[in-house]
Specification:
Shape: globular
Helix content: 25-40%
Keywords: NAD, Oxidoreductase
Largest sheet: 4 strands, antiparallel
Number of strands: 15
InterPro entries: ComplexI_49kDa-like, NADH_Q_OxRdtase_suD, NADH_quin_OxRdtase_su_C/D-like, NADH_UbQ_OxRdtase_30kDa_su, NiFe-Hase_large
GO molecular function, one term: NAD binding
Protein name: NADH-ubiquinone oxidoreductase subunit 49kDa
Number of helices: 15
Order of helices and strands: EEHEEEEHEEEEHHHHHEEHHHHHHEEEHH
Distance between the termini: 63 Å
Length: 508
């Protein structure tokens, strides 16, 4: 018989990538910056830029790492080396998306991006903690220009942050956001505990994204130890993540309805969010998903739990459709949201915004589709909106809720172990194992706000050398400042809530 050519589907790149430390030879600082600039000019997205203290085997004082996501293909990494106080040509001058990464790098290492247009502290680490009052706020001068300062202590129960509005009458000319009041030291704490027991700490970094953070940590540990999890374990994690996404999107819709005094919708959203987080509690014992997963393990979804989740989601889907219809059809909602807080697609792309905020401004990036992992066998299509206003951010959250509910109902209808979920061979669950030595692992999960990134590097004996955590919020806070410009100051609450960013995700 004549053999036939069979075209097999090419697996999509993984959201978790390993890089040999021996192969990542650090480049001199200026050459490192040049190579980073070349990748940016080729259309790659700078996901992260961070540094760690050099070891005796390294040259210089700091080892720098840049993580890139190309338009297609797998994650890429560049390594550089630098001495404290050394200068390099700023990437932000031509690619503003790098601005928050370069500021963080400068604050933590003293390596200076020469020509950075906005070189200000991000978290006020170390000695800078005593000098927050010296922050160099941007000023606008004019006879009728005035400033309005809000925070860091707020009337509502939220975390500390200072918002300084420069206004001409009621119109906002510029908003500057100063965060960094909490000084939690989360990244340093992760290096003081046994590597395999960090999940409770990781879950607490951003409490409303506990599943996303825990999953990024777990898949990094599993990759470093060469112990992939079973298909059912991966599916359980995705169920937990989508339940978290639904609950947090509904919480944002609740806040939006409350901020415009649409109390019927606000009350309904509050009830519906409670139904979702209570269902998560019945799975793992915690309403915010803590305890749903651990390295090598996740909560087993028994037939009883699947049925419970399915019934909860079916009832939820009916009610969320009704209340979303009320929000979309109400003239008062349209009057407040349409055309308010506009962030153009070009601005969102230039500033490197992520998650639902970027997608509402036309940037089609969702790691569940771009680096799918468990989602490869049951894709979630990326949805965008072109207008970039409060209405688009509201409506896109509604669409993402619908997509997550549909995905969950389909996933929960499958019997455990069906071929459609076969991702990797089963591994012993909950087991500790040696980690690959001198290896860098970059792990990504598309959380509610966008990509949650964790980069773990090991020593030559397999211990933890460095642990870098990155929330999607820091880049997006600057997007909020841009969106508020030329709006009335009374519209700031709905602009702020439509972004719904994390303070603790910034103040690590």
């Amino acid at each position: 018989m004549k053999a036939e050519n069979v075209s097999l589907p090419i697996p999509k790149p993984s959201p978790c990538a390993l890089f040999s430390g021996r192969a990542l030879q650090p480049l001199p600082l200026n050459e490192f910056a040049d190579r980073c600039l070349q990748r940016l000019q080729q259309g790659e997205r700078l996901l992260s830029l961070f540094g760690r203290a050099a070891t005796p085997a390294d040259a210089g004082d700091w080892v720098l790492t840049a993580v890139f996501l190309p338009p297609e293909g797998a994650l890429g990494v560049l390594r550089g080396q630098a001495r404290r106080g050394e200068h390099y040509p700023s990437l932000s001058a031509s690619h503003p998306a790098a601005q928050i990464h370069e500021r963080e790098l400068w604050e933590q290492t003293g390596v200076v991006p020469e020509g950075h247009p906005w070189l200000k502290p991000v978290r006020f680490e170390g000695e800078r903690q005593q000098h927050m009052a010296d922050y160099p706020f941007f000023t606008v001068r004019g006879n009728e220009v005035h400033e309005v300062g809000v925070g860091p202590i707020h009337a509502s129960v939220i975390e500390p942050g200072h918002f300084r509005f420069m206004c001409h009458g009621e119109r906002v000319i510029h908003l500057e956001i100063q965060l960094g009041y909490q000084h939690r030291g989360a990244q340093a704490l992760l290096l003081r505990r046994p590597a395999w027991g960090l999940t409770p700490l990781v879950e607490s970094i951003a409490g409303d994204s506990a599943v996303a953070y825990a999953w990024a940590y777990c898949q990094a540990m599993e990759a470093l130890s060469g112990r992939p999890v079973s298909a059912d374990t991966a599916l359980s994690r995705a169920v937990g993540l989508e339940m978290e996404r639904i609950a947090m999107h509904v919480a944002t819709l609740n806040g939006l309805a409350t901020d415009i005094a649409y109390l019927q919708a606000a009350a309904t959203y509050g009830r519906l969010r409670t139904a979702v987080i209570n269902a998560s509690q019945r799975v793992c014992g915690n309403r915010f998903g803590r305890g749903w997963l651990r390295p090598g393990w996740a909560r087993a979804l028994s037939a009883e739990l699947r049925d419970d989740l399915r019934k909860t989601l079916q009832g939820f889907a009916r009610d969320i459709h009704e209340v979303n219809g009320l929000m979309r059809s109400a003239r008062s909602v349209k009057a407040r949201f349409v055309g308010t807080g506009v962030l153009s697609p070009q601005a969102a792309l230039d500033m490197g915004l992520t998650g639902v905020v970027a997608r509402a401004s036309g940037v089609a990036l969702d790691l569940r589709e771009r680096l799918p992992g468990v989602y490869e066998h049951a894709p979630i299509t990326t949805v965008t909106a072109p207008t970039g206003d409060c209405w688009a951010r509201m409506d896109l959250r509604m669409q993402e809720i619908d997509a997550s509910v549909a995905w969950l109902l389909e996933a929960l209808a499958r019997a455990p172990g069906e071929p459609a979920t076969a991702l990797a061979p089963a591994a012993p669950e909950g087991a500790s194992a040696a980690l690959a030595a001198q290896t860098l692992c970059v792990s990504l999960v598309e959380g509610t706000r966008g990509p949650v990134l964790q980069a773990i590097e090991t020593t030559d004996t397999g211990g933890l050398l460095h642990y870098h955590v990155q929330d999607p919020s820091p880049a997006n806070w600057f997007g909020l400042a841009l969106a508020v410009r030329d709006n009335g100051i009374s519209d700031f609450p709905i602009c702020n809530k439509s972004f719904d960013l994390s303070y603790c995700g910034n103040d690590l």
